[in-house]
Amino acid sequence: MVKPSEAATEVISLTPAPPPPDRRPRARRVWSVVAVVAVAGLTVAGIGWASRRTTPGQPADQRIAVQTAELVTMDMSSTQSLPGTLGYGTARALKGNRDGIVTWLPAPGKSVKRGEPLYRVDDQPVSLFYGGMPLFRSLATRNTVGRDVRVVADNLIALGYAIGRQPGPGARVAQTTTTEQTATEQPTAAPATAEQTAKAPSAAPKTAAPAATPTPTRTTRWVTVRRGEGVLTASLQAAIKRWQADVQLPATGTIGPGDVAVQTGAVRVESVSVQPGDGADGPLMSVTPTAKVVTVQAEVDQAGVVEQGDRVTVQLPDDSHTAGRVAAVGTALKVPDGSTGPNDAPKLTITITIDKAATVAKLDSADVQIDFAAETHKGALVAPVGALLALSEGGYAVQVEGGGLVAVETGIFAKGLVEITGDGLSAGVKVVTTS
Known about the structure:
Number of helices: 4
Helix content: under 10%
Distance between the termini: 89 Å
Order of helices and strands: EEEEEEEEEEHEHEEHEEEEHEEEEEEEEE
Radius of gyration: 45 Å
Largest sheet: 6 strands, antiparallel, barrel
């Protein structure tokens, strides 16, 4: 038996044990590349990098879902954007063409259609007719032929008056004119000498010869009707009389330049230049078309790529868009109204009509932006702009789904899409994209 005092004494040094190793998975960083590129008016954002950590419990080798887009072929157009003005177009002066006193004028802003009075002279209405040329003579003689006769005939038909049959192009009509001629005077005899007078027997006093009576002479000539001309037939003159009676004009069957105002269509009165009581033989008012249009003042090189009939997009003040069409491209260079600077260059006026008038019904005037198609590529291979990746050595690439990067050449950019070409790329190939 061993006694306690005899037992060996063992000194044990207690040192805290090191903590067990952390068995949790280390955080892994997953990097993704986001490229946003903008060319030809799109915002340039450059290259951005984003990172996130995997959470505990997430498998380290889990793949991150990416968004892809399929390449497609379509027609691509580049655009040029120009400022424009929505309104009723350029006002033009309307002149009166008859003697008399203006007794009534329409209020500014009023629209006038075919057959309605545009103003009154000596309390007689001057109605609006549609046509491409004004009346330039009095139409009174039967079988008068001309394009002005066609204007009258077309308007009476449109107003519901029967004008009878009109000779067609190539028809020949007889025009008869009457002139008055007096009988040819007899030559006067030479005065008698004194000797002849002495030998001559006395004669009864001579009486004065009766005055010559004018003799009417009729001349007939045949006129060939050309395309676009009308003939003042008896039935057309009868229709003119009926129309004159309906609008409370003297029913003479004769119509002249001051009896109607001929315009290309319905008009809107922009402003009046005279007051009732003024003479009717000068500028009376300014008128515009009734349909709203957009006018664009363009440099010569800008207007050079625009043609009548081109489709355009109109951006309105509320950022909405509506479709339009180029109605006309001006050919006369002039400095726009309100431009007074010495460096203001003359410009051409482009007129654009709106497809749906209801989209601008609440706007009388506004500043708008017009997108013109400047260049079109048919059957282009197209990808979303978000699929472009900027390469460090320059240029761009796209990443094929499940594959690597493919360098691409870019073409037209429009509406978030870009035209691309690259090795192995075709319609149906899927590429990684941000949107």
